Amino acid sequence: MKAGIITHYDVHNHGAHLQLYALSSQLKELGYDAQALRYKKNYDFMGHSLDKKYSISLRSIPTYIKYLFQNGVGKTLYNMKKRKLLKAFREEKNLVGEYYSEATSLDATVIGSDEIFSIEPGLNPCFFGMGVPCDKVISYAGCFGPTTKDFIKEHNAEEFIEAGFKRIDKISVRDQNSLEIAKEYSNKNVTLVCDPVLLYDFSKEIEKAKEKKIRQKYCVVYSYDKNMNDQETISQIKAYAKKRNLKIYSVGFYHKWCDKSINVSPLEMFEWFTNAEAVFTDTFHGTVVSLVSQAQFFTRVGENKNKLRFLLEQYGVTQRQVSTFEEAEDISKEPLDYEVVNKTVQKTREDSLSYLKGALEN
Q1: What CATH architecture is 2-55+91-199+348-361?
Q2: Residues 205-230, mean pLDDT to the nearest whole number
């Protein structure tokens, strides 16, 4: 059997690649040859000039020259290497297949995961399975991200969302905000499931990571290049690390102020998170990978509160949420009890897998 996946498959982000790898691997265990379907994304709500940035061609050269002057040689070279690593990962794992409208012989199309339902960039019909030549369309852990009901109304997109959900036979989402929107605009049963990175069993990768011998003790910073560069944040993390004689490694993103910014493939993230003394993050998948790796983490919630705050509540780890990383000092006095957390993860995994199996069979 053959399945297509509609998701963000080529973004400059390890979390997006991990969730695609996890979902495609889980579908393969269920008997499907699964790959992401390619598409061209619409950026009308963010300014259509963004197309020059993401469509690599001669016309995008000025954009990248501007990037070089604004960000410096170190960050530019780091991200060039990162782009190559992520591309190599997609190719090695055979994660991306046909263009969505040209896909042939699909037995099922799975929408998700990640912020596939978000309309912040613009309206993309294929993100709801429209135009995909396949009768069975389901969603797994779809997410509206920062999109709210008010944003949908302000952009006159209510009919678009309603039509999109009519195309999807079985709907599942991964956070409360997405659940409420899907229920309002679909008039269908909507199931809450876990992110694919929590759905798929990465125990082999974790055991392999534990065998890795790293001499220097360290903490991990996992945040987008543009974030966690303010002096307050830097001082707080450096103070925590200095007290414990830890190196500070930025993994997957470039942060000049860290001792080292380490380029890794998506699966290598488990190695660095598992062996870290602590993880400082402000991202959804930084928190998810911490949970899978059983790391002692501290999460600062910002604009991504719709999905990130719910994630912390869902797994009973709200005590790891911080307003500033200065709070990490007190929080670290009570390490996370992963014996308890893992029970919640396992139960959510079983329920989510049950939904996926049922949605594909019916």
Answers
A1: 3-Layer(aba) Sandwich (3.40)
A2: 91
